């Protein structure tokens, strides 16, 4: 009876991804340390550095495009209304902006 229970437990563990799954049963061990060539890590790091550099350049170009688009929008708005978009009229003296402590 114990042998059957042990066999059922072993089958359940291996089918669920537990002990001995994925070809790592006794006699089928793969030496993972030697699975990759010696220079593979260096190549991966070099590749990642290249991708980072490329992404930085893309980000810089996107920011520059946004800046130019904002300048163009401001220029068009200024030409349309004749005022700069950041100019705000001065508040009227004694208007609703007066302090409550002035009474």
Secondary-structure map:
Layout: H1 2-15, H2 40-81
Description:
- This protein has helices spanning 2-15, 40-81.
- The protein is mainly alpha-helical.
Task: Give structural attributes.
2 helices
What's this, in brief?
It is built from 2 helices and no strands. It is mainly alpha-helical and 103 residues long. It starts with a helix and ends in a 22-residue tail after the last helix.
Percent of residues in helices: 40-55%
Q: Report the order of strands and helices.
A: HH
Report strand %. Answer: under 5%
Distance between the termini: 97 Å
Mind summarizing the main beta sheet?
Answer: none
> Low-confidence spans: pLDDT under 50, at least 5 residues?
none
């Amino acid at each position: 009876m114990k042998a059957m229970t042990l066999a059922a437990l072993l089958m359940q563990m291996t089918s669920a991804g537990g002990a001995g799954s994925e070809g790592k049963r006794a006699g089928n061990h793969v030496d993972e340390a030697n699975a990759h060539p010696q220079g593979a890590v260096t190549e991966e790091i070099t590749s990642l550095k290249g991708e980072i550099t490329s992404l930085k350049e893309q980000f810089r170009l996107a920011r520059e495009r946004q800046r130019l688009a904002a300048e163009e929008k401001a220029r068009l708005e200024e030409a349309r209304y004749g005022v700069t978009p950041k100019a705000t009229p001065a508040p009227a003296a004694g208007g609703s902006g007066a302090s409550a402590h002035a009474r």
